[in-house]
Structure to design on (301 residues):
């Protein structure tokens, strides 16, 4: 079994295929949707170099697992094929050492490294415990699902309309609506750059346009065609357009798109502490399928 750094767009496609293959085993514990893998690695391009922060384990049969360090969260995430549970220990060790090194060398004000663990993923929990991690609990992330059908009726307030992203000409509008939903710091130039990253497809970013031409809500939908699973990531409504039913509308639009693409199941994840997201997804028919807890280990000085 060899391991190597992530090397670019071809590896992004390979990670998507790996996630789909892993999910096809029927064991979903601790596994990302292929679109989530792309979204997570894609997010690194904004401030970091994925070639330095993502590492892949593979043999003659192909990819068996991978690790991604997340500098913004002083954390790492691992994905291991259900047929190779013995790799968990090696990936946890590499993830901790790589994250701790990055935190120390870049002066990040953290004295510990965080990883996530799923109660259903016994091999990962065992590896984390053996490596000296401690579960802090709190239901950090809640993963939910629903059947795509029956499809909901989509209702928009007067003057609002739904569409997909046209292209880079929407970059300023997209930066504004993402900032309005998440208090993030996108610029039009930055979002235009995002649209050039591997994995981004404007046809999968669904938006609701307000009467004044600005954007009021958005979601990006992802498709795992092998397993028939669609994913919402991310989902947002601008704070100035809330309480108009736009959250339900954007979810409904996404479900209709998933149905058009042949998806039978939809997934979406939210932070355990985010009551607004929890209420939105529950109202859209999503129920809990898994819970991720934070596990931490101190960095030795």
């Amino acid at each position: 079994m060899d391991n190597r750094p992530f090397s670019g767009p071809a590896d992004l496609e390979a990670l998507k295929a790996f996630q789909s293959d892993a999910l096809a085993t029927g064991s979903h514990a601790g596994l990302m949707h292929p679109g989530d893998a792309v979204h997570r690695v894609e997010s690194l391009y904004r401030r970091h170099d994925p070639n330095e922060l993502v590492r892949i384990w593979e043999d003659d049969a192909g990819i068996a697992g991978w690790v991604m360090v997340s500098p913004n969260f002083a954390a790492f995430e691992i994905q291991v094929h259900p047929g190779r549970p013995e790799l968990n220990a090696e990936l946890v060790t590499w993830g901790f050492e790589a994250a701790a090194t990055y935190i120390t060398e870049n002066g990040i004000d953290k004295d510990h490294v965080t990883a996530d663990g799923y109660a259903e993923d016994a091999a990962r929990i065992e590896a984390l415990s053996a490596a000296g991690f401690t579960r802090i609990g709190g239901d950090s992330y809640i993963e939910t699902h629903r059947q795509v059908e029956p499809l909901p009726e989509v209702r928009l307030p007067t003057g609002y309309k739904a569409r997909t992203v046209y292209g880079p000409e929407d970059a300023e509008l997209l930066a504004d609506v993402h900032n309005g939903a998440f208090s993030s710091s996108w610029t039009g130039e930055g979002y235009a750059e995002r649209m050039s990253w591997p994995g981004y497809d404007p046809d999968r970013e669904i938006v609701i346009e307000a009467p004044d031409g600005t954007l009021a809500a958005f979601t990006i939908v992802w498709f795992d065609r092998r397993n028939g699973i669609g994913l919402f990531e991310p989902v947002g409504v601008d704070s100035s357009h809330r309480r108009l039913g736009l959250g339900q509308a954007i979810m409904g639009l996404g479900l209709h798109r998933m149905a058009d693409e042949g998806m039978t199941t939809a997934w979406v994840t939210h932070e355990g502490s985010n009551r607004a997201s929890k209420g939105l997804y529950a109202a859209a028919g999503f129920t809990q399928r898994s819970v991720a807890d934070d596990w931490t280990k101190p960095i030795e000085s």
The longest strand covers residues 134-147.
